[in-house]
Amino acid sequence: MNVDILIGGLSYVIVLIALSVVIYRRKSLDALGCITMVVMGIIIIFSANINWLIILFLFLFISLIATRYKKPYKLERGLYEGQRTAKNVISNGLIACIMSAIGGLSLFLFGDSGLLFTCGFIGAVSTATSDTLASEIGVLRQPRLITTLKKVEPGTDGGISPLGTLIGIIGSGFIGLSAFVLGLIPNLALALIISIISGTIGCFMDSILGAVLEQKKILNNEHVNLLGTFTGSIIGILFSFIF
Question: Rounded to two decimals, what is the model's pTM?
Answer without folding.
Answer: 0.92
